[in-house]
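Help!! Second protein's tokens look totally different from the first
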Amino acid sequence: MPALLEKATPLVAPAPATRFFRFFHMTHRLGRGRVTVGQGVFGALLLACLTPWVSPPIALALGLGLAQTIGNPFAAQTKALTPRLLQFSVIGLGFGMNAHAAVQAGREGILLAVASIGGTLVLGFFVGRWLGLGRRVVHLISCGTAICGGSAIAAIGPVLGAKDDDMSVSLGTVFVLNALALFAFPPIGHALHLSQPQFGLWCAIAIHDTSSVVGAAAAYGNQALEVATTVKLARALWIIPVAIGTALVFKQKGAKITIPYFILGFIAAMLFNTYAPAYVPAARALGSVMVGLAKVGLTLTLFCIGAGLSARVVRAVGVRPYVLGVVLWVVVATASLYAILHLG
């Protein structure tokens, strides 16, 4: 009987000619198909993310470790899957939230949202000009910081007429800082003794992408998660007026504006969880199942995001976009934290 695993030739010629790299990119026979060791490692880590022992921050760390060592063997697939998985996860989280509490959280966060979005765009313009960066890159990084990270950049980019290089630099900058925020914010929140509502509001304003906002808030507590998700999604709706303003300022006629329709799914799920249990007793059990699946989906989303941040992506951004991103991030995080602690 032939062995199940049979050593063969590399699937692709690896760039770094090291024995370590070649080992993970050699193809092997598995049954009737062929896989690489790297693909097997990816699969094992993905399965680990389905278990309750891997939290969203750990999943991100596993993805980053994979990307920085052997690389992501399914880069194209994870890039296509990540946005849909995040949208499903956000909608699923709505089944665990109460509409009345969400309205209250949104009302409390709206003034901070308006002030921080406007202030970030203005500050980004002047800092970007000082750094000598192109207008499109500056606007994309500023929008990603101000609204909702990669989603805002993906929506504003076509309206702006951004080139592929502009998009890559902006997304790379925001994703790297976004990953750092997921690890940094919970310890800071605990050190400052922030309440769960305070931390949730701070996350929603100061962390770029919805995935890391939800991941950081979930690590802090259920109430923080509820506040953070609601405020962040309300903030994401600002993509529409900002996109319209972008088309006018940059004189892009006939530009197509992408509307984040999945937010409607989140609202529908939240209304279902608030009102359906009074009429359908099984609704609460269904909601619990959906929330559980959503949290698993979020963990997988962060693993895929981490797996996409290869060393090449990090280096390709350059220093100046990171400087812009860090300045905006620090100012937004510090100013919003001060407002939450002293003006709330």
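Here's the second one for comparison:
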Amino acid sequence: MTSLRYLKWPLIVTFAGLALGAWLGWATTGTVEGMLTVFVICIVLSVLEISLSFDNAIVNANKLKQMTPIWQKRFLTWGILIAVFGMRVIFPLAIVAIAARIGPIEAVKLAIAEPDQYAAIMHDAHLGIAAFGGTFLMMVALSFFFDEHKEIHWVRMVESRVSRFAAIRGVEIAFVLTLALFFAAFLDGDARATFISAALYGLLTYLVVDVMGNLLDRAEETMSDAARGGLGAFLYLEVLDASFSFDGVIGAFALTQNLFVIAIGLGIGAMYVRSMTIMLVERGTLTEYKFLEHGAFYAILILSVIMYAQAIVHVPELLTGLGGATIIGVAFWSSVRHARAAAPVAE
């Protein structure tokens, strides 16, 4: 019964969202078949979002437990509005508005009246989005592994060696730039320039957010109790959420070109991710399962490389989601085995 309380709002949003999706299907097609199609697409999109963002929930929980209660509450209220409406509605509209050089109102009209053209513009912008998001996520993952103070290792043979290089200043940046240039070498002309430019902006965004977070942390004593220990982490988590959302938003257009159906489906999934984050924090699951966090960062690293690879070849979103879920599952299993081995034997 205790676990069900975490599902209260996700279930409410699920029922409301699916009902709205079914109505939207009926309103746009006027047929039962159309209504059921949109209904099923909303379900598939929500599952896609959950599978792609489970590692996001783990990383969020790790950062969230370090925040003050008031900033935790702000992230789980304001943050959900930004995640659902900002990234699932405003972000696609902004991409189309910038790419097509039209205003936001015209972008909304385009999404309603000409969804195929709207989807085509989104797909054309995928290269830059993949490079930006892939770079940011790769830096997030590498900052976890390139840590000279890191004491807990899951894949010890790899992680213990990697952590030794953390003392070398800028090693993560050098690694990311090398990989970005490697993938860019497979592209030509404008595509190569777009990829490299977006990757640099992704790197710059990570560094700016990281610097801001450090500055805010150092200024904790001069802040009010309400802001202390939370603003820097809040900004970091919002940018991280945005980076995780790129893949899901772009992948959703493979199922439907309707912006509002995408917003409903991904919004439902986002609510479950938020609930998983709250559960992980309140139950101390990351402490109980020692390697779960490691699995999440491995999944993030692989996702970032996949986003780079998508500049060259198409990688099915199902494969991306299942890959991350599998790694986290193995990390969970390893954590359980470790806990059992470390438990004292009853006499």
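Reply: Different proteins will give different token patterns, so don't panic. Residues 224-228 have pLDDT under 50 and may be disordered.
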